[in-house]
Amino acid sequence: MVTLVCTATVLAGCSGTDNGGSPDARGKAAEPAVSAALPDLPDPADLPDPRTLTGVGAVTGVGEPVPVTDDPMPQLPVELTDADGYDVVVDDVSRILALDLYGAYTKTLIGLGMRDSIIGRTVSSDEPSLANLPVVTQGGHNINVEAVLELNPSLVIVDHSIGPREAIDQIREVGVPVVVMEPLHTVDGISEDIMNLGGVIGLPTDAEALAERSVAEYERAVEDIRTITPEDPLRMAFLYARGTGGVFFILGEEDGVSELIQGVGGIDVATENGIRTASPANAEALAKLNPDVFIMMEKGLESTDGIDGLLERPGVAQTVAGQNRRVVTVPDGQALAFGPQTGDLLERLALELYAPESK
After folding, report:
1. What 3 state SS string does 86-125 have?
2. Which helix (H) or strand (E) holds 173?
3. pLDDT computed for residue 16 by the predictor
4. How far is CA 223 from CA 87, 125, 238, in A?
5. Could you give the angle at which helices 342-354 and 204-226 cross, rounded to 10 degrees?
6. Rounded distance, CA 102 to CA 141, Å?
7. What PROSITE patterns does UniProt report for this protein, alphabetically (predicted)?
8. CA 125, 131, 136, 139 torsion: positive or negative?
9. I need a labelling partner for 57 at 20 to 30 A (CA). Which of 145, 223, 297, 350 fits?
10. What is the DSSP string of 344-355?
11. 3-class secondary-structure state, position 157
12. What was the pLDDT predicted at 5?
C-alpha cells in the first residue's frame, strides 16, 4: 500500500510502501521514452524583421505526449489527503475522469501511458485520441454531475478551475473517489504538477521520468528560441474571446500568459501595465497596451468570425497588431496547459511569431 497523507500540491514529496509487481516496486527507475522531436528552428540570419509580418498565423502539429511506458503498473492502493482536506483511498484507476480548465491532466495521463483509462473529458482535453469520448461539462467548464455518474468512474481527478464546488461534492457524496488537486500551473511547476498527478494514481517513478523529460524539453526550447528572438522584443497581448458578444478579455500574469509570452522572448504588455488577471478588452485598455501581436486560442478567434470579426471589436483595429492583422492562434487545449508538451508548444509558437515561412 502506498500512503500519501499530504495536500495535493506536495504529493511528489510523500512516500510509502508498494504492493509489488511494478517497475517502481522493484526499485528500477523507468527509462524516459524519446519524445517527438522538437521542430527545427531556422538560421537567425535568414529571419525577417518580425514587425514586418502580417496576417493570421496558427500553431499546429503539437500532437499528443509520447508515453514514457506502454505498460504502466500502478502501485495501489494509494491513501492521500486531497487539496480540500478530504481523506481519499485510490484503489482503482481503470476508469478515470481527469477534469480541469486547461486539459493538463489528460495530457499527463497520456504521457504516463494511461490513455486507455480515460473515459470522458472536458472541452479542453482535445487530444485526437480522446475525440470520441463524451464531454462531461456544459456551458464551458461546468461539471454535469449526471454525465459524470453515467460513466461510472472509478476515480475523478479535478481542481477548482472548473466546478461548481457543489457538483464536486455531489460526486463525492455518492461514493465516487474524488481527488481535488491544487496545481501550481506554472512553467516552474511543470515537474511538480506531473509528479503530484503520478502520485495519485500510483505511478511515481513513471511520473518522475515524464517530469524530467518535460522539463528538459522546455529548457531546450527556451535556449533554442533565444537564438531567433529579436533584440527589440515583440510586445504581445493574450486575448480571450468567446463569440461576438461580451466575452472579450485581456489575460494577465495570474492566468499564465506571461510565462507563455516570455518563453518565446516577448514582452507581455498586460503584465507590464499591471493587469494580473482577466480584464475587459475595451478600446481604452487596448490603446494603452498597443501590442505588436495578439495571441489567441484557436477557437476563440473562430468564434469572433475570424480576423475580420475581431477587427470590428472596439479598439482592436487601432492597435499595431490590428493594423497588421497580426494574430497568432494556439490550440485551445494547449495554450495554457503547462504540462508535458510545453517545450514543443513554445518552439512552434516561436516559429509562427518569427519565421512562419520556414515551417
Report:
1. CEEEECCCCCEEEECCCCHHHHHHHHCCCHHHECCECCCC
2. helix 165-173
3. 38
4. 42, 28, 23
5. 20
6. 10
7. FE_B12_PBP
8. positive
9. 223
10. HHHHHHHHHHH-
11. strand
12. 41
Q: Which of 352, 341, 342, 230 is nearest to 296 (CA)?
A: 352
Residue 144: all three cell numbers together = 454535469
Consecutive sets of 10 residues in the chain, 359 residues long: mean pLDDT of each?
41 38 38 55 83 96 94 98 98 98 95 98 94 92 96 98 96 98 94 98 98 96 93 96 89 93 97 95 97 96 96 97 98 92 95 87
**Please, which residues have CB within 8 angstroms of residue 327's CB and are 6 or more apart in sequence?**
56, 57, 293, 294, 295, 296, 301, 307, 310, 321
CA distance 15 to 81: 13
Indicate the DSSP class of residue 135: B
Please report the pLDDT score of residue 35 as a whole number. 52
Whole-angstrom Cα distance, residue 39 to residue 77? 40
Instruction: Return phi, psi of residue 117, to 5°.
Output: -90, -10
Predicted model pTM: 0.88
At 53, list the grid cell.
Answer: 509580418
Q: How far apart are CA 195 and CA 6, in angstroms?
A: 13
The C-alpha atoms of residue 228 and residue 103 are separated, in whole angstroms, by: 29
Q: Which of 122, 107, 157 is nearest to 343 (CA)?
A: 107
Per-residue model confidence (pLDDT) at position 12: 35
- The whole-angstrom distance between residue 169's C-alpha and the CA centroid of its chain comes to 25
- pLDDT reported for residue 190: 96
Please report the pLDDT score of residue 359 as a whole number: 61
Cα torsion 4, 99, 339, 47 to 10°: value is -170
Which grid coordinates belong to 111?
504521457
